[in-house]
Design brief:
Elements (H helix, E strand, L loop, with lengths): L4 E7 L7 H6 L15 H11 L3 E6 L5 E8 L2
Antiparallel strand pairs: 1-3, 2-3
Amino acid sequence: VHGEEVVIVVADDGIGLPGQDRDRLTEPYVTHKPKGTGLGLAIVRRIIVEHGGSIEVSEAQPTGTTFTVELPAA
């Protein structure tokens, strides 16, 4: 269907992420894990963008983080 989209929202109630970390979360090689590569969310973002969509990371209320993925429904 032209002009419609699918929106997927995933939220947790953890400790959340500081703003500067949230802004860089989908960049390659950004990680807070001692053995992490920082590629997981960067790859996810690239796949979503290549399919005409977007992913946003925001603060959940009162605590946690929210990921919002928007994809064309075509």
